[in-house]
Amino acid sequence: MESENQVLESRKSSSFRRLSRGDSSRRISLLTDEAFENESVSEAGDIGDRALHSNRISNSLPVFENSNPVSVDEVAQSVGKKEYLQEEKDVHWLLQYITCLLSLAVFGILGVVARYSLENLFGPNVIGATSDHSYMYLDLPSNMVGSFLMGWLGVVFKPDILRISDQLAIGLTTGFLGSLTTFSGWNQKMLDLSVEGRWVFAVLGIFLGLFLVAYSIIFGIETAKGFRWLLTKSYIRSFCSKKPCLNPYTSNESHFLVTFMVILLLMLVLLWGLFGTLAAKEFEEGGNRALLFLGCLVGPFGVWARWFLACFNGRGLGKNGVAKWMPFGTLAANVIAACAMAALATLKKAVKTKNCDTVASGIQLGLLGCLSTVSTFVAEFHAMRESDCPWRAYAYAIVTFFVSFVLGTLIYSVPVLAKGYN
């Protein structure tokens, strides 16, 4: 009997250990999944120069689609690819970084021009859909268009663009779409409405604007998926299914990077030279054209600053990485730009000279408009809504708007009302 009892007890203890190990493994799995989701939602929009590092690592890992045994030749070929990629990484990291900065600058300038064009097209002088004195603020069309295109270029087709070039993908999403949209201009228009006493319009502008950009990216994702489905059903399928032309094992990536960098450098010099000459001619007269040209000159600096701040997305606070789900890099860029926008608006009210107005407005349009972004913000907002904790999306939006509006009120609204500026 004693031997039977010992056997039963040993079986119970072993089964208990198996259950405890299973429970602990499930807990570890849940914690790992939660940590991964926290980082992924905050990195849905942009992660700065970490994107170059992560892409190099992912490209350097050989992928095996099945579990069949590999031959000695395949192993040797894989080792050769690793050595080649290691050499490419060591030699071309600086080249990739410079090319990325040039791509951000060129596409950032194009984003400023596109935002200015949409602002004038839908403004009171042409279509009349937006106004400075309405909750349909002037930058709403560009924010909606940028959010829609973010669904195409930043979500659905981003893997395909990455197959062509990492720098091109970063330039299109962070550079062009990030500069096409602006959070600081949105916040400043709501501050203007609050100073005028139109608090209902200010609240409507925030909530309606958030609703429109949130559904713009959803519409963009759905239409992009539909377009991709059409491609798979058409004759273009054979073309799209081809291997990328920039395979590091079949082509010299350095030659492509050098060519792409030279093209971007020439474009940047041409754009800066053109807008610099036009800004010098139009500066004395002032007006919208002068601030556009000045905005295109300083816009790339705002894009670069936002890209560097994006490195803090997914990192959390402190050594332990508290609240990794909050994209603090994007939050900091939008809040800093909103505060600087309010400060320059106060300066224009106080100085009231043509030159000051032109310079301040150009910096607001270019530097601060590119420093802040709605396309990245709404991509992160959408990722949080689709996660297991959708409340984080609204918490992120509330924190962004509340901090920006309160600080903007202290910097802009209080001095304007206290001094009685017109």
Indicate the topology.
Layout: H1 2-42, H2 50-60, H3 72-121, H4 140-156, H5 158-164, H6 166-180, H7 183-195, H8 199-232, H9 237-240, H10 253-282, H11 288-309, H12 328-351, H13 354-371, H14 375-385, H15 391-419
Helix pairs in contact: 2-3, 3-4, 3-6, 3-10, 3-11, 3-13, 4-5, 4-6, 4-8, 4-14, 5-6, 6-11, 6-13, 7-8, 7-12, 7-15, 8-14, 10-11, 11-12, 11-13, 12-13, 12-15, 14-15
What does this protein look like?
The chain is mainly alpha-helical. The chain has one domain. Helices cover 77% and strands 0% of the residues. Helix 3 runs antiparallel to helix 4 and helix 7 packs across helix 15. The termini are far apart. It holds the Pfam family CRCB. It is a multi-pass membrane protein. Keywords: Cell membrane, Membrane, Transmembrane, Transmembrane helix.
- What is the average of the pLDDT values? 83
- SSE arrangement, N to C: HHHHHHHHHHHHHHH
Helix content: over 70%
Domains, number: 1
Distance between the termini: 99 Å
DSSP summary, beta strand count: 0
Count of runs of 4 or more consecutive helical residues = 15
Q: Biggest β-sheet, characterized?
A: none
Radius of gyration: 26 Å
Structural class: mainly alpha
**Into which percentage range does the β-strand content fall?**
under 5%
Shape: globular
Unreliable stretches (pLDDT < 50, length at least 5) are: 15-20, 23-32, 56-81, 246-250
